[in-house]
Amino acid sequence: STWGLSLSQIRMVVDNMAMSSGATEFSAGDTAWVLTASAFVMLMTPALGFFYAGLVRQKNILTLLIECYAIFAAVGIIWALLGYSLGFGDSCGHFIGDSKYFALRNIGADPYPEAPTIPSYVFFFFQLCACAITPALIIGAPAERFSLVPSVIFSCVWVIAVYCPICHWVFHEHGWLKELGAVDFAGGMVVHMSAGYSALAMAFLSGKRENTSGTMGPNNISYSVLGGALLWFGWFGYNGGAAFAASSRAGLALVSTNLSASSAALSWAIVDYIFKKKVSALGIAVGSVCGLIAMTPGCGFCPAWSSLIIGFLGGAFSNLFIHLRETYHWFDDSLDVFGCHGICGTWGTFATGLWAYSSDSTSPIEGGFYGRGKLVGYQLAGIITVALWSFAFTLIIGFAMKAAGILRVDKNAEEYGLDKATFDEVPYEIITAMPRTTTAQLFNILKHYSIFD
Q1: Does the pLDDT of residue 447 top 80, yes or no?
Q2: How many helices (H) and strands (E) does the chain have?
Q3: pLDDT band at 210, cuts 50/70/90?
Q4: Nearest to 368 by CA among 380, 360, 382
Q5: CA distance linking residue 305 with residue 355, whole number of Å
Q6: Phi and psi, residue 209, nearest 5°
Q7: Secondary structure (DSSP) of 176-226
Q8: Which of 2, 46, 181, 220 falls 20 to 30 Å from 280 in CA-CA distance?
């Protein structure tokens, strides 16, 4: 070479400089996997928009779609400015993070302690995508009476008041629930339980929908099936990425996630057939999502075969609860967010306490079925705390919005449709089909002129 140094000598010089400067050596494979997984998780929020949009009436399709987009955008900013630091900053009393990472300070090439083989920017972005979908889940409960701007305001406040403390308790190495011994691999408590019990509070606060059209059924099941399929795909990144490494544990998470979704789709269909004597196409899609939810807290801890049981029971429990809610009209959870995320998140968290097992010498985990009943108690402590915190603080936020007059749209806007009231747009125009009598008359005319013999 020009300077008399070989390529191997240059590499040695660079390596020595990196070692002397204290630079961290990252795993290219781990980094590539978590980057890819983060993109999968980002896709889940617009996928949720399609899933929800298919379930509401036609006059509210655009509102649900754009609410998911807008929430992802707004929460991404909040997470960068405040949320990440409150969730993952240095612990203050094992309860909340400090200001260490406010406005992206101290985030860069250095790793986060819980993910030592990837840059902290990658860890930050994965957590952003997981956080952003959580308040978007909640808006399904007051859907068709909760407009765009209030939903974004609610989401930003909720992330700070509800999500960040729970995230710190469960995911931070010094969070009080984690130090207690409760486990949550990918977000059964942090995401699904917090969203489910918050949705329950919003359903109570929002009241029942005005039903002037005579039908409250889904407008486009194809949208929901498409959204459900994309959610299933994205969940591989969501659960598998939570290993923060391209490892056998990530592989276990992927296999368990898929098996749980499959068995829950089956159990949902069975319960549908028992009560309705037919299988629902929409139900199979919803059932698979319930299986994904149920396996989230334990996908990296429980043996793969247990996911068949956890998913199957999760789908059945959720369907039974929704059937009872619809029969007895307990409350109007428009898109059954609590019935899916609350019920399955709770069940999955409890089931993790039964089946979790890890022989890792640094952090061994043994559930109730492996002789350590204490883990069941720790999981119950997490379930009770997360449920109460989520429900109570969502009530506080909701009452404040109600006092400000922005919790629910007025009756005219609700009857007219949020799409027209908010955007003066519609997703598509309905073309009325030709009446059957007209078609028959046309056929007779053609036959009369011997066009048809």
Answers
A1: no
A2: 19, 4
A3: confident
A4: 380
A5: 10
A6: -75, 155
A7: HHHHHT---SSSIIIIIIHHHHHHHHHHHHH-PPP--SS--S-S-HHHHHH
A8: 46
Structure token pair of residue 201: 């509070």
Work out the mean pLDDT of the chain and round it to a whole number. Answer: 90
Query: What stretches of 242-305 show up as alpha helix (H) in DSSP?
Result: 248-276, 281-295
Label residue 187 left, alpha or beta by phi (over 0 means left) and psi (-120 to 50 means alpha). left
CA-based torsion, 418, 419, 423, 424: positive or negative: negative
Q: Both tokens of residue 320?
A: 């039974």
Q: How far apart are CA 417 and CA 447, in angstroms?
A: 45
Q: Are 64 and 53 in contact (CB under 8 A)?
A: yes
What is the identity of the amino acid at 344?
C
Count Cβ atoms below 10 Å from residue 217 Cβ, excluding itself.
10
pLDDT value of position 28: 96
Contact between 397 and 38 (Cβ < 8 Å):
no
Half-sphere exposure of 452 (CA within 13 A, CB side): 7
**What distance in Å separates the CA atoms of residue 386 and residue 136, rounded to the nearest whole number?**
18
Residue 237 buriedness (CB in 10 A; 0-12 / 13-18 / 19+): buried
DSSP 8-state code for residue 423: I
Average the pLDDT over 14-37 and give the result. Answer: 72
Q: Specify the 3-state DSSP secondary structure of 398.
A: helix
